[in-house]
């Protein structure tokens, strides 16, 4: 049977990147970033303009993707390694049970690292993770040299090569330098090469589910020279700095290459921003390469494509870097769906304003595959939203999203509907309120505006409702309690 006609059900391609900001698409009018292939997917597909990562770091975000659960259900409300993933229902597992050939290439970030989580096969590269490079404290079977697929391949091309050769830490969001080896050896190219090879090796009698999962633009900021050259001399706009943000950096945190906050030397920051944008364009071009291969195999019109990121990158906004915080640069993510074959009757070229989250990926893709959605799933299928006014919706969409992240003194809880945002720092009691419609850069904290107190109390009450009964004791007597010890993993997951 000819390729592309092996099944009435469509193939599914899930493309995720790591740490990409929501605004880094040229179709959204970004002043410097070029993303021609993602632009085309959006132009001929559907763009979701209010997609968020409710717990915006790698581990909890990926738990939401894998399980379709909100953070209180999958249990990961912060970043913690080495907690086993024992979820009975996963996106690849359900698709495999439904008859799909399932494959992941690239980043999983689960534990144990080689857990299949329902995939038939995984070609793994999680990037540089400190915990599994620790030669003293990592079990041999979990050490990076034993679990990673990219590094042995790279060493086969360049004997003695390592991920540390550029001298850049995996969390160095403020320093950059070009990739020193030929471009085809870069992990971004490798991920696409391995994904194209899957097209050759897949079972032709089944539809496929391929998760093409890039480590970049997460640092190290190491784009190939040709991509860095595209940006290094451009007039890159400064990050947005809220009136509430730090004004001075007396401890000099901005000089630390792996800082999460601080005033970074201007030249260093501009180079880092250029490299970050360069990595995004590099990924975009490689996505274009895969789409060309998909067409050559006759599968482009039989493949539903979904593109998103696990979380964003603050990139100097408010003198903050990396992720985990609830601000737009960190928690707001790009999200595009494309259905060239018309399987889902989407409103092509449209943009959706309703608020969606990573938990919605699993039920949406299972729905597209005509597979059963397990009762454990908290998310909702997004396809009715993506059809616009073509069909009446059976029920109203979610009114708001509850997000959170454990991070010591910076631990936060937040509520947003995409138009307004209420933030509570659980360890200090600090509150913030932003009107995202009028102030998308979150420059003005309106928490003390007398005219908004009724509205702020409404959002505060929503957060109290969401936190009622939590094991940390965030709510007592109907009020938020400051200083309760946060946890990164809820007890029902640690005990599983």
TrEMBL record:
Domain of life: Bacteria
Database matches in InterPro entries: Alkaline_phosphatase_core_sf, Sulfatase, Sulfatase_CS, Sulfatase_N
Keywords per UniProt: Calcium, Hydrolase, Metal-binding
Domain Sulfatase N-terminal stretches: 10-369
Pfam annotation, one family: Sulfatase
Record keyword Transit peptide present: no
Keyword Plastid: no
Protein family per UniProt: Belongs to the sulfatase family.
PANTHER family on file: ARYLSULFATASE FAMILY MEMBER, ENDO-4-O-SULFATASE
Protein name listed in UniProt: Arylsulfatase
């Amino acid at each position: 049977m000819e390729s592309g006609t092996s099944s009435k059900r469509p193939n599914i391609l899930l493309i995720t990147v790591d740490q990409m900001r929501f605004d880094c698409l040229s179709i959204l009018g970004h002043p410097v970033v070029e993303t021609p292939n993602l632009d085309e997917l959006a132009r001929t597909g559907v763009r979701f303009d209010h997609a968020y990562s409710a717990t915006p770091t790698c581990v909890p975000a990926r738990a939401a993707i894998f399980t379709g659960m909100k953070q209180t259900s999958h249990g990961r409300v912060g970043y913690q390694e080495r907690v086993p993933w024992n979820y009975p229902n996963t996106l690849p597992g359900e698709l495999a049970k439904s008859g799909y050939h399932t494959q992941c290439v690239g980043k999983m970030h689960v534990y144990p690292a080689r857990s299949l989580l329902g995939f038939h096969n995984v070609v793994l590269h999680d990037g540089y993770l400190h915990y599994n490079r620790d030669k003293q404290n990592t079990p041999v079977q979990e050490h990076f040299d034993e679990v990673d697929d990219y590094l042995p391949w790279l060493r086969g091309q360049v004997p003695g090569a390592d991920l540390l050769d550029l001298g850049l830490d995996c969390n160095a969001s403020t320093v950059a330098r070009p990739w020193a080896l030929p471009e085809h050896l870069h992990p971004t190219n490798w991920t696409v090469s391995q994904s194209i090879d899957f097209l050759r090796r897949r079972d032709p009698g089944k539809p496929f589910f391929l998760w093409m999962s890039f480590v970049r633009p997460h640092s190290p900021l190491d784009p190939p020279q040709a991509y860095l050259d595209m940006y290094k001399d451009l007039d890159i706009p400064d990050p947005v700095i809220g009136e509430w943000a730090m004004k001075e950096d007396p401890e000099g945190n901005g000089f630390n290459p792996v800082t999460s906050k601080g005033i970074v030397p201007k030249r260093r920051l501009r180079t880092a921003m250029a490299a970050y944008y360069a990595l995004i364009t590099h990924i975009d071009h490689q996505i274009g390469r895969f789409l060309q291969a998909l067409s050559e195999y006759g599968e482009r019109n039989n493949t539903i494509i979904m593109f998103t990121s696990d979380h964003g990158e603050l990139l100097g906004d408010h003198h903050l870097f990396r992720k985990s915080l609830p601000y737009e640069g960190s928690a707001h993510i790009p999200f595009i769906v494309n259905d060239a074959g018309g399987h889902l009757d989407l409103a092509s070229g449209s943009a959706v304003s309703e608020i969606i989250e990573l938990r919605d990926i699993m039920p949406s893709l299972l729905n597209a595959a005509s597979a059963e959605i397990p009762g454990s799933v908290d998310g909702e299928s997004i396809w009715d939203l993506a059809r616009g006014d073509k069909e009446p919706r059976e029920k109203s969409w979610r009114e708001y999203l509850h997000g959170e992240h454990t991070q010591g003194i910076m631990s936060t809880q937040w509520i947003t509907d995409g138009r307004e945002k209420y933030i509570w720092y659980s360890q200090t009691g600090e509150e913030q309120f932003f009107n995202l419609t009028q102030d998308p850069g979150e420059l003005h904290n309106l928490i003390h505006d007398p005219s908004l107190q009724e509205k702020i109390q409404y959002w505060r009450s929503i957060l109290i409702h969401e936190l009622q009964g939590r094991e940390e004791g965030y709510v007592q007597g109907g009020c938020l309690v400051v200083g309760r010890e946060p946890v990164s993993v809820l007890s029902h997951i640690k005990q599983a």
